[in-house]
Amino acid sequence: MKLVVPAEIYDGESRVGITPDCIPSLSKMGFSVFVQSNAGIGSSFTDQDYKNTGAKISVNQKELYKNADLVVKIQRPTKQKKINEISFLKNCNVLTLLYEQKFKNEYNLLKKLKINVFALERMPRISRAQSMDVLSSQSNLSGYKAVIDAASQFNKAFPLMMTSAGTVAPAKVLVIGAGVAGLQAIATAKRLGAVVFSFDVRVSTKEQVESLGAKFIEVEDKSKDSGETSSGYAKEMSQGYKKKQAKLLEENIKKMDIVISTALIPDKPAPRIISKKMVELMKVGSIVVDLASEFGGNCELTKHGEIFNFKSKKIIGPKNLAATVSQDSSRLFSKNVVNFLMNSCESGKFKSFNWEDEVVKETCVIKNLIGKGK
To answer: Is there a catalytic annotation at residue 136?
Structure first.
């Protein structure tokens, strides 16, 4: 079976869908891996690295996609002026990050083709799917990088320092949302020596937050709502709860130097948590890093892909943070894909997807192709 790894064409996307270290595993499963020339260079993987592990390099895109059984991409296939990736997709399976609710145009174009599309962001949150969960692997690195970027923009030091010239107070960091990205942000801020606080609507996250050394701040909620869906994601809360939440955050946010916001609700715009008023209350020189920027932002003032200066405070709307640590994020994404494919193997060989399996059914959002290996 032919597995194809194209170069990513979106601006700022330096990751690659499959990395050289995973080629031997794919070969054992029965795949012949074809990689577009220089597809991995943004992640520091050369064509020779791929050749050394058994992949074939294709310079011509038409030849690359010809007779492909499986296409692995980070970003959804798209149609641009210079390159129309969608035109190359014929009788194949596509594994990618799709986000069909947000990118409806590409989704509708793909629906018209005789292909199957697996939206990897829809991986179910079950124990055996953890090794296939691309959202978690990429969010983990995004949480880390958010704190590093905040530290580079901040005009003070993070840790407590006792010097002969005086004491440097530690930075105070508030992390909103204690999912994978939030927990990594907490851990990173603690490693840098900051005093860390965290807020999440899910009361079940309190123990995890405190185990990392952060203080959990919470809304007093007499309804005892768990704040999470059956899948473990944060859910939309009542208006009464939101008013209490806003008051709690107003009281705490004015004491903070750095705020990292990571709150997302599946298939919905990011919840607005940080108001303009809250930012106005923050200290001069403080920073907000809004990881939900691509989905509308948690902060009212966020501008996606920009650093917005507001009354001597910075609101950072990062664009594709995982791609800024592309070597590691590509490796993790690639390993997630290998584990996903291995999940459908019989006696170590891949012949077709196991259509009765939950992880296959949940991630396949377009199924227009049925047949051996398809």
So the answer is: yes
What distance in Å separates the CA atoms of residue 172 and residue 174, rounded to the nearest whole number?
7
Query: Domain 139-323, what architecture?
Result: 3-Layer(aba) Sandwich (3.40)
Q: Which of 125, 191, 272, 357 is catalytic?
A: 125
Q: What are phi and psi of 134, to 5 degrees?
A: -70, -35
Selected catalytic residue, list 136, 198, 261, 334: 136
Task: Read off the pLDDT of each residue in 107-122 and give the average, rounded to a whole number.
Answer: 96
Looking at the predicted structure, is the pLDDT value of residue 371 above 80?
no
Query: Average pLDDT, stretch 247-262?
Result: 96
Has 48 been annotated as catalytic?
A: no
pLDDT at residue 266, rounded to an integer: 81
9-24 pLDDT, tens per residue? 999 999 999 999 999 9
* 130 pLDDT above the threshold of 80: yes
Q: Read off the pLDDT band of 372 (50, 70, 90).
A: very low
Residue 72 main-chain phi, psi, to 5 deg: -115, 120
* Catalytic annotation, pick one of 47, 69, 133, 290: 133
Structure tokens at 132: 């296939």
Q: 243: which 2 tokens?
A: 């008013």
Residue 202 appears among annotated catalytic residues: no
Closest residue by Cα to residue 353 from 115, 128, 108, 112: 115
Separation between Cα atoms, residue 110 and residue 9, nearest integer Å: 17
Provide CATH 3.40.50.720 ranges for the chain: 2-122+343-367, 139-323
Residue 117: strand, helix, or coil = strand
Catalytic one of 48, 80, 101, 130? 130
* C-beta of residue 37 within 8 angstroms of C-beta of residue 59: yes
Tell whether pTM > 0.90.
yes
Range 2-122+343-367 classified under CATH 3.40.50.720: yes
